[in-house]
Amino acid sequence: MPIPFGVSKDDILRSKVITPGWYVAVVKSVNTKAAKTDSSMNVIFTFRLIGGSYDGTPVDALFSEKAPGFAVPLMEALLKRKVNPEGEQFDFEKAVGQELLVYIKNEEYQGRMLNKAADFKPKV
Asked: Is residue 3 part of a domain?
């Protein structure tokens, strides 16, 4: 009996280990998902790299509502300015389609190397 199993182009690209460094990327999507450990929400950004040997490769970054300060470098890269030191609101849905520079690092998870969006700068 056949056992159907498929992989998409994104699945194949996502499995490539990217050389750490700065890459031009576009925000492909922004979604929310409940954390597995509690009822807090996570915001998951999916970036698609543009150009070079990793063109089209998707890379994710996750931000927890419990530690929103970790999203400040991303917010500043998208706004192309510093975040107000008194705090400010940002609508992450407006980020979709924007280009920026993303620093990709590798992280081992369960014996496999994964790509992670670790830092952000505005595209000049």
From this structure: no
Question: 3-state class of 109 per DSSP?
Answer: strand
The Cβ of residue 71 has, within 10 Å, a number of other Cβ atoms equal to 21
Domain count, the chain: 1
Nearest to 42 by CA among 59, 66, 12, 19: 66
Coil, helix or strand at residue 63: strand
Q: Does a structural domain hold residue 111?
A: yes
Sign of CA dihedral 108, 39, 77, 31: positive
The CA distances from residue 36 to 3, 30, 41, in Å, are: 29, 18, 9
Query: Within 10 Å of residue 99's Cβ, how many Cβ atoms?
Result: 15
> What is the residue range of 36's domain?
19-122
Q: What is the CA radius of gyration of the chain?
A: 16
Please report whether residue 8 resides in a domain: no
pTM (2 d.p.): 0.88
What is the tens place of the pLDDT at every residue in 26-83?
A: 999 999 999 888 889 999 999 999 999 999 999 999 999 999 999 999 999 999 999 9
